[in-house]
Design a protein that fits this description.
It is a single chain. The chain is an alpha+beta fold and about 325 residues long. The protein has 8 helices and 14 strands. The model has no long low-confidence stretch (mean pLDDT about 90). Bound molecules: 1,6-di-O-phosphono-alpha-D-fructofuranose (AFP). 1,6-di-O-phosphono-alpha-D-fructofuranose binds near residues 64, 119, 121, 245 and 273.
């Protein structure tokens, strides 16, 4: 029997009473995100029974195959969050242009960027997928919110989070005061606090890199791979590899167990594969708040100045000492 049952909204309110800089209007956002993720979850867990598995027959702005569940998740978040009223503009990894919310209160001041279903090519084989989100305030002086408001450096985020649809469904968020995790209890229909103040363990237990790309990796990544395999003179013992190819799932495991994830530059993708605004920045914010670090291989991820809404960036994220080691490799 649980001692306490704390919902995200309750937790956010308690945190707000401790931290004056937390944005009160965001509480409604968490209610909306949890609603959207409950709906997405209900589709993800029964996708094999209906007609929601497989490709939708289109490619997105990234040139990748869109899965039917990508479309479903994107529409679901747009419809729910679009009616929130406090968002001035939205941006989705699945859509080329910024999205005008269907309802805006006067003075709406937030920007929401989201990846509706990260790792979606894994859905058909029952591997965990996730939703990632990131929140900014509109730029000072903005009258007509636009793409510019969506292209702020990551250090300007006021909150970020993700939902991982796995063996259980978890939502993890930060509003700049630690990282908190909630597990969905289907019997109650709520996300309840299960992991308060998550800190990445000091020991790096896993490294997560797609080594199938080895022939295309730069010397920096290859040197780092030698290091984690204990093949250098540093007395580093080999650590285990874990990579499922679903960023949220790989990141979540490393956050809880200690680890480093890297999707570095390759010869054919000099900017890596992952997107700065939808994947790298929100997870970098969470990772730093949990005591870890994130870089693009040279500089702090949150300091990267965006040049495009859908720009890709090499991502190195996890235990701080390992990220520093990668940067110096
Ligand atoms: P999909 O959304 O197309 O499945 O891509 C997932 C992803 O963007 C990210 O979640 C993974 O970490 C990464 O791609 C895996 O890419 P590789 O298959 O090239 O390793």
């Amino acid at each position: 029997m649980r001692k306490e049952m704390i919902t995200i909204e309750r937790h956010f309110l308690t945190e707000m009473s401790k931290h004056a800089d937390m944005q009160p209007n965001l509480i409604n956002l968490f209610t909306d995100i949890t609603l959207a993720s409950k709906i997405i979850r209900s589709q993800v867990i029964t996708a094999g029974l209906g007609d929601l598995l497989g490709k939708a027959g289109e490619t997105n702005i990234q040139g990748e195959d869109v899965q039917k569940l990508d479309v479903f998740a994107n529409d679901c978040i747009k419809n729910i969050i679009g009616k929130h009223g406090h968002f001035a503009v939205l941006g989705s990894e699945e859509e080329e242009n910024v999205i005008e919310p269907s309802f805006k209160r006067k003075g709406a001041q937030y920007v929401l960027l989201f990846d509706p279903l990260d790792g979606s090519s894994n859905i058909d084989v029952n591997i965990s997928v996730g939703t990632i989100f990131s929140i900014y305030k509109v730029l000072d002086g903005t009258k007509t919110p636009s793409e510019k408001d969506c292209m702020q450096p990551g250090y300007e985020q006021v909150a970020a989070g993700y939902v991982v649809y796995g063996a259980s469904v978890m939502m993890v968020y930060t509003a700049g005061h630690g990282v908190h995790g909630f597990t969905y209890d289907p019997a109650v229909g709520e996300f309840l606090l299960s992991h308060e103040n998550i800190k990445i363990p000091d020991t790096c237990t896993y490294y997560s890199i797609n080594e199938g790309n080895a022939s295309e990796l730069k010397p920096q990544s290859l040197n780092f791979l030698k290091y984690v395999k204990g093949q250098t003179d540093d007395n580093q013992t080999a650590i285990s590899a874990r990579y499922v190819g679903s960023l949220v799932a790989d990141f979540h495991r490393n956050l809880l167990k200690g680890g480093i994830f890297a999707y570095p530059a390759t010869d054919s993708s000099p900017n890596g594969k992952l997107r700065l605004m939808y994947e790298a920045n929100p997870l970098a914010f969470i990772c730093e708040q949990a005591g870890g670090a994130a870089s693009d291989g040279t500089q702090r991820m949150l300091d990267v100045v965006p040049t495009g809404l859908h720009q890709r960036v090499p991502l190195v994220i996890g235990n701080k000492d390992m990220v520093e080691r990668f940067n110096k490799s």
